[in-house]
């Protein structure tokens, strides 16, 4: 028993001395496993207690417990010391000089297209319109057929569409929202909404993009006339481009409106006198419009004998280009900060 006790005390004292020399928490843990772990030196000695007599075991057990307590207490104290030193070093390394000037943080802002969309929305909300939305992945029925564009209609060739299946495509216009809105609200009157959104066509040049944005407008009620459409669009044009603006409606053709009209606004650069921007005409085309075709009203669930309506659609990029004097649409999609910071 005497030899076993001496060995326990020797191992314990050596561990205590080595403990004070360690300066890393990892080494501290390794020493603890080396002495008190399942295969540690002190643990190995404890297995020899089975060879002691019943009278010697309690005495030796007391020696072992006292040494274990000393070691564990020493480990806790040394671990606390090392943690305090590490914390002090970290705080010193992370110290902030509060006398230094602050770093400049660049403020972000809305993209010019977002600015224009929000301005359009604000103008029409002020005229009593509500905002409607629809899916960008659309069925052929809502994108074409319900808008008086059957499968054999030649006007389909004007839009090079992105088809997913024979009956599903990326919408080429926000006009499908007209039908979805009328189906949802029928027979409620009036229907008075705008539908801003993203649309897709296979175009890519200075004035076209394969992905662009439109705002569709629709009003359906009893007694709606072409003059109501002109008044709404004149109000919009003056709020968007200036109070001195005038508009004109030129006869045109759209399958979903009859009669149809292209809408021009007097040139905001020359005031109608003629310049490079308006190509000497004094007018700039901004959108298409017309009275909702009776078949479209029927598709939406309304009786064209009882109600009439008007619709219009504008390209947000075109409005933005005219408003900000941008000549190449691709600048709006390049994400060049030198360009975007101007807005």
From TrEMBL:
Instruction: List the EC numbers from the record.
Output: 6.1.1.20
Q: Which InterPro entries match?
A: aa-tRNA-synth_II, aa-tRNA-synth_II/BPL/LPL, Phe-tRNA-synth_IIc_asu, Phe-tRNA_ligase_II_N, Phe_tRNA_ligase_alpha1_bac, Phenylalanyl-tRNA_Synthase, tRNA-bd_arm
Instruction: Tell me a GO cellular component.
Output: cytoplasm
Q: Start and end of every Aminoacyl-transfer RNA synthetases class-II family profile domain?
A: 114-322
Q: What's the record's note on cofactor binding?
A: Binds 2 magnesium ions per tetramer.
One GO term of the biological process aspect: phenylalanyl-tRNA aminoacylation
UniProt KW keywords: Aminoacyl-tRNA synthetase, ATP-binding, Cytoplasm, Ligase, Magnesium, Metal-binding, Nucleotide-binding, Protein biosynthesis
Query: What is the catalytic activity of this protein?
Result: tRNA(Phe) + L-phenylalanine + ATP = L-phenylalanyl-tRNA(Phe) + AMP + diphosphate + H(+)
Q: SUPFAM superfamilies per the record?
A: Class II aaRS and biotin synthetases (SSF55681), tRNA-binding arm (SSF46589)
Residues binding Mg(2+) are 258
Look up the record and name the cofactor or cofactors this protein needs.
Mg(2+)
Q: Which family does it belong to?
A: Belongs to the class-II aminoacyl-tRNA synthetase family. Phe-tRNA synthetase alpha subunit type 1 subfamily.
Q: Give the record's subunit note.
A: Tetramer of two alpha and two beta subunits.
What the entry lists under PANTHER family is as follows: PHENYLALANINE--TRNA LIGASE, MITOCHONDRIAL, PHENYLALANYL-TRNA SYNTHETASE
Q: This protein is called what?
A: Phenylalanine--tRNA ligase alpha subunit
- This protein's species is Desulfosporosinus acidiphilus (strain DSM 22704 / JCM 16185 / SJ4)
């Amino acid at each position: 028993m005497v030899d076993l006790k001496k060995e326990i005390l020797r191992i314990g004292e050596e561990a205590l001395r080595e403990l004070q020399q360690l300066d890393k928490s990892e080494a501290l843990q390794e020493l603890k496993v080396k002495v008190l772990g399942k295969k540690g030196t002190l643990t190995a000695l404890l297995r020899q207690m089975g060879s002691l007599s019943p009278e010697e075991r309690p005495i030796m057990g007391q020696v072992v417990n006292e040494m274990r307590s000393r070691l564990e207490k020493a480990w806790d104290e040394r671990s606390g010391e090392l943690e305090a030193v590490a914390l002090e070093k970290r705080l010193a390394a992370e110290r902030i000089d509060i006398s230094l000037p602050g770093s400049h943080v660049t403020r972000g802002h809305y993209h010019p297209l977002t600015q224009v969309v929000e301005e359009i929305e604000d103008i029409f909300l002020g005229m009593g319109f509500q905002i409607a939305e629809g899916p960008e992945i659309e069925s052929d029925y809502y994108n074409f057929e319900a808008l008086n564009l059957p499968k054999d209609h030649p006007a389909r060739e004007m839009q090079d569409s992105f088809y997913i299946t024979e009956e599903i495509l990326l919408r080429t216009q926000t006009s499908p929202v007209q039908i979805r809105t009328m189906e949802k609200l029928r027979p409620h009157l009036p229907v008075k909404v705008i539908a801003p959104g993203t649309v897709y066509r296979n175009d890519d040049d200075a004035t076209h993009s394969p992905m662009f944005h439109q705002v569709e407008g629709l009003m359906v009620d009893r007694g709606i006339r072409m003059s109501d459409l002109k008044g709404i669009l004149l109000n919009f044009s003056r709020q968007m481009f200036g109070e001195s603006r005038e508009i004109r409606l030129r006869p045109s053709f759209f399958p979903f409106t009859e009669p149809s009209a292209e809408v021009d606004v007097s040139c905001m650069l020359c005031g109608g006198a003629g310049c490079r921007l308006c190509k000497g005409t004094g007018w700039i085309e901004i959108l298409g419009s017309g009275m909702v075709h009776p078949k479209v009203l029927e598709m939406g669930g309304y009786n064209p004998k009882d109600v009439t309506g008007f619709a219009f659609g504008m390209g947000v990029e075109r409005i933005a280009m005219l408003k900000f004097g941008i000549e190449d649409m691709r600048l709006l999609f390049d994400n060049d900060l030198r360009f975007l910071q101007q807005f």
